[in-house]
TrEMBL record:
InterPro entries: AstE_AspA_cat, N-alpha-Ac-DABA-like, N-alpha-Ac-DABA_deacetylase. SUPFAM superfamilies: Zn-dependent exopeptidases. This is Succinylglutamate desuccinylase/aspartoacylase. One of its GO terms (molecular function) is hydrolase activity, acting on carbon-nitrogen (but not peptide) bonds, in linear amides.
Length: 341
């Protein structure tokens, strides 16, 4: 039985073909026409529909490169089901090298959006109505924000068996059990029966090769687990998924210049010194200590800090040393040249 075609933005995509569809979005003040490109791969064989999106926050670049590499994979010619790839959702923030929209709104607080609303609502509606509503699953790619770096990890509703299975297939070593804030893409998608996994890795406005390889590896692994792609010739190594039981930000007790002694992925004990905040004029220094046991999953990349700044993000696990071991093993697997192909 022949699969039906799919229609997006008024364009029909036949089974066994791919197309790039340009969805009209609200214009910039230059009024020269603005669009959101969507790459559609509509397989010959029956299967689910999945979207992969990046740059909902315009300064988050790793996901853009992950999708660029995904689009070049010859394996997609054997796709079952339908894949929608959206390299840049927030084109306005992307052009301005900023997280937000021109009106300073965070796009990821306005889903599912609506026509006739703010710029954020209009843009969210275009993406949600044309892509998300037509999918069974989604993978949303992010980095840290505001000069912060994230260790590659998964966020999602881990109490949902489908999301948990996707997280385990993705292969990242750590996960946070978070259902998504009101107005977020994940929360709006879930209300419409679409299961979405969020991948966090790296920092804004920078490419990070480890994060990019981890993201591409994870996406193709999920596609294989959903039977959308045949398994690769080389079997990929796996590490047990460690789900955090709690998390907290370690905040600067004083202002100054921070030099870290602990690193991303490291297991730390409560009270352990994570780094030192120095007086740039040679005065008294202050240690930053861990408020709880756990693994560092995020940190600030700027040296300058103000008192109260969130400097390090620590996640608590039932087996923190095993979590660090999983991170170390995963890092070696991802950066192995043979596994990166």
């Amino acid at each position: 039985m022949t699969r039906p075609s799919v229609t997006i933005g008024g364009r029909t995509v036949l089974p066994g073909t791919r197309a790039t569809v340009h969805l009209p979005v609200p214009d910039t003040f230059l009024r020269q026409g603005s669009v959101m490109p969507v790459h559609v791969f509509h397989g010959r064989r029956q299967g689910p529909s999945l979207f992969v999106c990046a740059a909902i926050h315009g300064d988050e670049l790793n996901g853009v490169e992950i999708i660029r590499r995904l689009l070049r994979l010859k394996r997609l010619d054997r796709l079952a089901g339908t894949l929608y790839a959206i390299p840049i959702v927030n084109i306005y923030g992307f052009m301005a090298n900023t997280r937000y929209l021109p009106d300073r709104r965070d796009l990821n607080r306005f889903f599912p959006g609506r026509e006739g609303g703010s710029l954020a609502s209009e843009l969210a509606s275009v993406f949600f109505e044309n892509v998300v509503r037509h999918c069974d699953y989604g993978i949303d790619l992010h980095t840290g924000s505001n000069h912060r770096r994230n260790l590659p990890h998964i966020r999602g509703d881990m109490e949902d068996p489908t999301v948990l299975a996707m997280a385990e297939a993705f292969g990242a070593p750590l996960a946070l059990d978070l259902s998504g804030m009101e107005g977020s893409l994940r929360a709006a998608a879930k209300e419409n029966g679409v299961r979405v996994l969020l991948f966090e890795a790296g920092e804004p406005l920078r490419f990070d090769e480890f994060s990019i390889r981890a993201g591409l590896r994870g996406i193709t692994s999920v596609l294989e687990a959903l039977d959308m792609l045949p398994a690769g010739k080389r079997r990929r190594g796996r590490v047990p998924l460690q789900i955090a039981t709690d998390r907290t930000w370690c905040r600067a007790p004083a202002s100054g210049l921070f030099r870290a002694s602990a690193k991303l992925g490291q297991h730390v004990a409560r009270g352990e010194v994570l780094g030192t905040i120095y007086d740039p004029f040679g005065g008294r220094s202050t240690d930053l200590t861990a408020p709880q046991d756990g693994v560092i999953i995020g940190d600030q990349s700027l040296a300058s800090v103000y008192k109260g700044d969130a400097v390090m993000h620590i996640a608590r696990f039932d087996a923190p040393r095993q979590a660090q071991a999983s991170v170390d093993e995963y890092s070696e697997m991802v950066m192995d040249a043979r596994m990166a192909r």
